[in-house]
Amino acid sequence: MSSAPRVTSITLHRASHLLEVGFDTGETFQLSCEYLRTHSPSAEVQGHGPGQRVLQHGKRDVNISAIEPVGHYGVLLKFDDGHSTGIFSWPVLYELGRNQTSNWQAYLAALENAKLNR
Length: 118
Fold this sequence. Notes:
The chain is built from four helices and six strands; from the N terminus they run βββααβββαα. The chain is of the alpha+beta class and 118 residues long.
């Protein structure tokens, strides 16, 4: 039975608006606060069912104001725009790191199609 990668380190770089997340696989991802905010696992962003995702915009300068542990499985990221309802589990953070490039390109395309700004 293989287990999902676990977070070994989390460092917030406030000045550059980056969250650096290290995993027990040896991988480290630098995730922008904007990326994390716009891809939050919260119902506010993901919706309550398939196809209900809410496109987030205007988050270019958002930062993380607090990081709170949630059990042994994740963290609650509190953003300075008031968003504080998404629990980022270790598997969610890992998926966001591994798929960052394709997720980000799809997000930018969705913004462009909707004629919205970052």
